[in-house]
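Bit of a strange request maybe. I'm writing a small parser for C-alpha cell strings and I need a real example to test against, not something I typed by hand. Could someone generate the C-alpha cells for this chain?
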Amino acid sequence: MYVLHATAAFIRAATADPINSEIVMTSCFTRRGRSLRLRPLAACLMLACGAGASPAATAGVTHLVTTCTDSLVFPACDGQDDGTLRRSYFCAQNDDTIDLSQLQCSVITLSGALTDGAAYVTLQGPGSDLLKIDGANKGRVLVHNGSGELRINGLTISNGHLDNPYDYSGGGCIYSYGGVSLQSSVVSMCATSTTGAKVARGGAIYANKNVSLFESTVSASSVHSTFGHSAGGGIFARSVGLEGTTVDGNTASSTESYAVGGGIYAKAGVIATYSTISGNTASQGAGAFANAVTIVNSTVTGNDAFAVGGLYARTSASLYNSTIARNTSAISAAGLVVAAPTAIRLESVILALNKADGIERGEERVGIFLEQVRSPEAAGTKAAGARRGGSDGEATARTGAGRGG
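Reply from user aminoacidic:
Good idea to test on real output. This should exercise your parser:
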C-alpha cells in the first residue's frame, strides 16, 4: 500500500479545448459548503462552480404532469397542457419546468423517446426512489435538442436502448445537444450499440457539452460497437463533474476495436468530489478516461480493464485525499496512468491492492505510471486498444506496455 504526499507544480492542464487550456487557482465552494482549493481543468472548474446556468432572465412556465399514461400520438402545442409528460416535455419552451412531483404512480412506461427542443428545461420529480421514467428498451428515454442544459431532479431514468445508426451521437437513456445536470437522480440499465465500423458513445448519457451530477448515480449501463471503437459506458461528454455521486457497474466494449472509459469518457476533463467510481469495465481507462482528472475526497475502486483499470489521463492528474484501490488490468498500471504528463499533483492519496497481470508489482507499474508511454501499435499488442481513434478526441489509448517496473 502506498500513501503519497507528493507535490509538483502545475504548469498547464492542456485540454482538447484550447480556449480553456490555462490553469487558474480558484476557491470553489460546492453545494455542500466545502471549500476546495484546486488547480483543475478550467472547463470543468466552471462546471463544478455552477457554470451552465441559463442566461435567460425571464422565468419559464411550470407544466404539471397529472397522468402516468403515455402514447406516441404527436402532441399539439396549442398552449394547453393535457397532463401528459410527452406533451409537456415536447412543448416546453426555454426555462420551463415539467413538474412530476404530484404523481401517485411509481413508473411512467414510455411508448417511445421523449423529445424536446428548448434550450433549458427542467424535469422535477418527487424523488428517485418514488418515480421512474422507463424507456422499456424502445429507444432513448430523453432527447434534448436544445443547446443549453437538460436538468433532471429527483427521478430515475432507466431502460433506454439506442441502436445508433450514426457516428456522431449516442446516449442510451439521455441525449443532449447541450449539457445535462442531474440532482438526486439515478440513470441505470441503459445501452448504446452500433454495428459495422460505427463508433458507439455514451451508454447512459451523451452530451455535446458538460455533464454535472450531484448526489446521483449512473449504473449498469453499456456501450458497444462491433468493428468500431466505443467510449463512455456510463457517460460521454466534453467534461464531467461529480459531487456525492456514484458511477458504478458500467461497461465499454468492442468486438474488434478498442473501448475506453467504462464509467466516464470526457474529451476535456473529469472532476470528482466526495464520489465513487467503481466496478466499471473497458479495454482501457475502465473507471474514467479523460484529458485531465481531478479527484478529491473520492474513491476509485474495483474497475477492470485490459490496460489501466482505474484512471487514464492523457496530460495531467490532480488527486487529493482520495483512494485508488483494487483496480485491475492485464497490462500496464492498474490504478492510474498519466500518458504524457505535463502536470501532476498528489496529496494524501492511498494506492492499495491494484493489480496488473494478477500481481502487485510496485508503485510505478501497478499503482501509478507517469512516464511517456508507447502506443499499443508500438508495443505490438493486439488488444481492444490497438486501433486509431476517431476525430472527436477518442485518440489511441496508450497502454504503457514495455515500460515501467
